[in-house]
Amino acid sequence: MKEAPLGGLAAAFATGIWIANYTDISFIALVICSSSVLAGALFLSSSRKLSVVCIFLAVFLLGAAVLRNAQRLPPSHISNFTQHRSENVSIRGVVDSDPVETKRSSSFMLMAESLIRDNKERKTCGRLLIKFFPKEKISYGDRICLEGNLYRVPRFRISENFNYRDYMENKGIYSILSVKKGSSVKILEEARGRLLRMSAYRLRRRTRRMIKENMSGSSASMISAMVLGAREDLPERLRQLMVRSGTVHIIAISGLHVGLVSLMALIVLRFFGIPKKASYIITFFALLFYCVLTGARTPVVRVTMMAAIVSYGILINRKANVFNSLAAAALLILLFRPSQLFDLSFQLSFVSVISIAGLSPKINNYILKSVRQKPGAMRLCALFSASIAAWIGILPFSMHYFKIISPIAILANIVVVPYMALVVGTAILAVAAGYIMPPAAPLFFAACELSVVFLIKMIEVFVSVPGSHFYI
Amino acid sequence: MLDLTREEKFVIIFVIASLLAGSCVTYYKNRPGCHPEEQGDLLSPKDISRKVVNINTADINALISVKGIGVKTAERIVDYRQVNGGFFSKEDIMNIRGIGPSKYEALRDQISAE
User: Fold this and answer.
1) Distance from CA of B39 to the nearest CA of A (A)
2) Cα dihedral angle (A37, A41, A44, A49), rounded to 10 degrees?
3) In the structure, what pLDDT confidence band is assigned to residue B48 with cuts at 50, 70 and 90?
4) Considering the entire predicted model, what is its pTM?
5) Were A128 and a residue from A175, A192, A330, B34 both cysteine, which residue would form a disulfide, CB within 3.0 to 4.6 Å?
6) What are the φ and ψ backbone dihedral angles of A186, each rounded to 5 degrees?
7) What is the pLDDT of residues A199-213, one digit of tens each?
8) Interatomic CA distance for residues A108 and A101, integer angstroms
9) Where do the DSSP E strands lie in A386-456?
């Protein structure tokens, strides 16, 4: 606790959010209580224990207040204009995400500006999901006007404890607009979005196209998922293989991917003789760009924030503490998006790191007492400890949400996780070659495809082991 | 001679190994008598035995074969396609009168929306 003071504060904040979700205490009451307790902490500052208790209590109440505030949508929010039954409306707004294209249709998020119903225009706000059959080329940042059927996000269960409407509402989406085939989308203004996001999305589209041109269907979709976080084209069969083997985390951009990108950036900068501290700053901006490139999902945001905190620590000559950095990342994410606490991706991302960082050293020390301390055996023990620690941490979530237990995950991850470094490394190398040395790119992509095929064949072998997984 | 660190040596070895592996794969793929159609997708299954009805292209007979869809619902699905152009995703079938969330959960493994 002395080395990770933010851990307690993050836990108090998260608990406040959790409790507020299941109670009905008003925002005003929470703010008054939090302010009073904070004032109490100030007056009781001479008493160390009491003031600390008051600070934690104030943070707990603040967490509850932040959630209550985030749940309160403005009167002009698009969800307040969405009927329970589908109705035909026109909406004007700005494209707020990179359009995702399937074979026939496309979808994207729209930041609504106005709604036209019965020839009356009303100002509105908030994000909604747009589904349409693309006739026009639409990009992030375009200001558009479109007509379609507006309806609430349907409530159906993806699994027993996983509801689609709750999942979308946690992301701030309450409404969907389906544009009929043949209806036109009017582009009123092009490219009004942020420059960083526009550049990242353009690069992402170009990279996906390059991957598809150089690799076969399933391999291309695996690499797009592992390197760019683009999982739309991933065949369901491959996804199920990874769920059953407990290795589905490899398609979530996280620490390994960010670590590899950092390593490559640092090596390139060192090659050009850039000083160490400047290298860390430039690498951080490269990671920030990679975070936006991959869609800024919770795990990569977490890792990027932790990398920023650790880099800052290096710059000011302070030792990094993983729990403190993790807690800081959690606090920052929850401060701006408290509903993320209920997002499965957020939960898995943080729980896995906590269990690996907390349990793995203990398991490792326990095992090392009984094995000969040779370098090879020690490395294997470290991998086994990390794998079992992560499995223990994730187990309650996989049982609760997916009703599956995969004992094979412990062994599978010992093999798959280190091998994944090879796959991601060859993929990044192939993409880099595609931009810097296009004639050599097909060779690197062929090596990448070979590594992906071996990865999937390995996972198939693990899944075929009797008792590898069972549903509850 | 070349003052390379351990990481730099590792990166150079990795790049050379990738080039060699990629060359071998490309050489194998371009062997005489091998047609592009034969190369295919090594990761896709040879046969997909699970029967799934595409709600964007299936006729009324194919739609009725889905357990839970009767004649009236099948007709409504075809009408919806004609008016709206099709279904963006499987979940959009809930826009059809008579198909709510619980019915969708029963149908979803039998349908697709490609």
Assistant:
1) 9
2) 110
3) very low
4) 0.81
5) A175
6) -90, 125
7) 888 899 899 999 999
8) 9
9) 404-405
Q: How many CA atoms lie within 13 A of B114 on its CB side?
A: 7
Nearest to A109, CA basis, from A81, A144, A67: A144
Give CA–CA dist A61/A54, Å, rounded: 10
ipTM above 0.90, yes or no: no
Measure the CA–CA gap between A112 and A115, rounded to whole angstroms: 8
Cβ-contact A58, A34 below 8 angstroms: yes
Instruction: Show which of residues 385-444 on chain A sit within 8 Å of chain B, judged by CB atoms.
Output: 425-426, 429-430, 440, 442-444
Which amino acid appears at position B104 of this protein?
Y
User: Measured between alpha carbons, how far is A56 from A51 in angstroms, rounded to an integer?
Assistant: 9
Written as one letter, the residue type at A178 is S
Residue of B nearest to A232 (CA): B89
Taken as a whole, chain A contains a residue count of 472
E strand or H helix at A376? helix A375-402
A280-294: pLDDT as tens digits: 888 888 888 888 888
**B41–A222 C-beta distance less than 8 A:** no
A435-441: which pairs have CB atoms within 8 A and are 24 or more residues apart? Answer: A440/B19, A441/A210, A441/A214
Rounded to whole angstroms, the Cα distance separating B64 from B58 reads 10
Q: What is the pLDDT of residue A256?
A: 79
SS3 content of chain B, % helix, strand, coil (to 5): 55, 5, 40
Chain A residues with CB-CB distance to B14 below 8 A: 425, 429
